[in-house]
Design goal:
mainly beta, OB fold (Dihydrolipoamide Acetyltransferase, E2P), 95 residues, single chain
Length: 95
C-alpha cells in the first residue's frame, strides 16, 4: 500500500473491456523524503475519491482483487480516503 494525492481524472472512451464502468484517477504518490521523486499513477477509484484528496492505494494483484476481476487490466486501485495522517519526520531515514 502507498499514500497519494489525487491530482486529476482520466477519461478513455476506447479501453480494455475489463475497465468498462471504472472511474480512473491520476494519483501523485506522496514522498516522505526530499530525495525521492515519484511519478503519477493512474488508478481505478473503488470508493469515490475526488481531486485534491489524499488516498490509500494498492497495486498489482491486490488492485485486481479490489475490482473483483483477477484478469482485469488494473495495476493500481484506490481503497481509502485518508482523514488525517501524522508523520514524525525526525524518525525518517534519508536514502
Amino acid at each position: 500500500m502507498w499514500v497519494g494525492t489525487v491530482i486529476g481524472t482520466l477519461v478513455a472512451t476506447p479501453k480494455d473491456q475489463s475497465l468498462t464502468g471504472s472511474k480512473l484517477l491520476i494519483v501523485q504518490p506522496v514522498s516522505f523524503t526530499k530525495h525521492k521523486e515519484c511519478i503519477p499513477v493512474v488508478a481505478v477509484d473503488a470508493i469515490g475519491a475526488g481531486t485534491g484528496e489524499q488516498v490509500l492505494v494498492v497495486g498489482g494483484s491486490s488492485a485486481r482483487y479490489v475490482v473483483g476481476n483477477p484478469e482485469a487490466a488494473v495495476d493500481a486501485a484506490i481503497i481509502g480516503i485518508i482523514d488525517t495522517m501524522e508523520v514524525n519526520r525526525d524518525l525518517l531515514k534519508e536514502p
